[in-house]
Fold this sequence. Notes:
The radius of gyration is 18 Å and the shape is globular. It has one domain (62-279): Beta-galactosidase, Chain A, domain 5, CATH 2.70.98. The two termini are 26 Å apart. The chain is 6% helix and 45% strand. It has two helices and 19 strands. The strands form four sheets. It has an eight-stranded antiparallel sheet. The chain has a five-stranded antiparallel sheet with strand order 5-11-17-16-13. By secondary structure, it is mainly beta. The longest helix has 12 residues, at 268-279.
Amino acid sequence: MVRFQEESGSYLDLVGPRGILVRFTYGLDVPKPTWTHLYTLSGDLLTLHRPFDHLHHRGMMLTWSDVNGFNFWEENRGPEVSARIVWRRWLERFAGRDEAWVAAELDWPDPTGRPLLRQRLGFGASPMRGSDGAWLFQVDAVFEALDRSVSFRTPPVYNGLGLRLARSMNVKARILNSLGGLGEEGTRGIPAAWCDYSGHLDDGGGEAGVTVISHPRNDRHPVAFHTLSKQMAFISAAPTYAEGRELAPGQAWPLSYAVVVHAGTPSAETCAAWAADFSRRESLLRG
Length: 287
């Protein structure tokens, strides 16, 4: 059973049989709604929330640092540049025996308060079929330009769905993509169907990690990944890595990704099977 646990106006947890799987922090006191805490099934925390070296890294984030010149990724860049993503309302929820998911509406206003984008966001948790010690987190988003054109610009190259992982995971990290590329050099900036980041957890947590998967319905699939293991433990699915994305007024841009949270270090064959499973799943956003 996956269920919800909420502190209204602050955060929403998706909770599995053994504890919290993920926390979505969305209160008006935060500059952007993010999944601040991501856990393995055994309760080990995989993400870093506001580490001292990058205070704007808030666990797992879906955001950009240059949208029409406004920065929704970094924070405290000045009142004319820094912008906030604002949670507006929950649209729909479902909690069943093996899965739970929720849909929300978010606004991306410029620093004057005038909305640039409206975002529908769906996310949910379910078991990873046939894999003990793994669960699947699905993220679906639709970005819609309102009354003016919107430009998701690059560089920076890392924008998209980014995860700042536990500090210990950059020690002897194993980074592997669907093409067989290894490490930063073999995976960074290279379009792939999936990319796995596995490493060691402190405090006796053993090996664990995440496999980030792009859905074939994405218009930029396979997707380029930005990976770091020397400076920090970081991975992002970055659809604007090589080229920005332009939206005309009223145009929508849908994206769909999965993050398989797992114990151990999975083989390429296991990651490929997870990607095949995700490719058969529909979007959580209805209509």
